[in-house]
Amino acid sequence: MSERDVERTYSVEDFAAKLRRLADALEAGKPFRIQIAGERFTVPRNAQISVEHERGDDEEEVEFQLKWKLADAEAAAPETDDAEV
Predict the structure, then answer these.
(1) What does pTM read for this prediction?
(2) What is the DSSP string of 7-63?
(3) What are the sequence ranges of the domains in the chain?
C-alpha cells in the first residue's frame, strides 16, 4: 500500500454525520468504514484514539486522531464494500 497524506474539508452537517457513525461504531465495538477523497477503508474497533490541541500565534487546532496497524484493518474489513457502518 502506498503512502498517503490527505486532508479533506467537510460541511458541518457532513462532519457531524461522520462523527455520529463513528461514535455508534465505537460504542457497538464494531469497525468503522469511511471514504475520504475517493478511498474507502476500515478503521478497526481496536484503533487507538487521541485528541490533539495545537496553538500558534494566530490560530488554534484540534485534531481527533485514530491510529491502527494495517494488519488490524485488513482483519476487520468486511467481505464487500456494502457493509458500511
Answers:
(1) 0.71
(2) -----HHHHHHHHHHHHHHHHHT--EEEEETTEEEEE-TT-EEEEEEEE-SS-EEEE
(3) 12-76
Helix (H, G, I), strand (E, B) or coil at 66: strand
Separation CA 60–CA 54 (nearest Å): 6
Residue 75 CA to residue 31 CA, distance in Å, equals 10
Q: Is the pLDDT of residue 59 over 90?
A: yes
Largest Cα separation within the chain, whole Å, is 47
Pull the grid cell for residue 51.
485528541
Let me know how long the chain is.
Answer: 85
Which own/partner contact pairs does 50-53 have at CB distance under 8 Å and 24+ positions apart? none
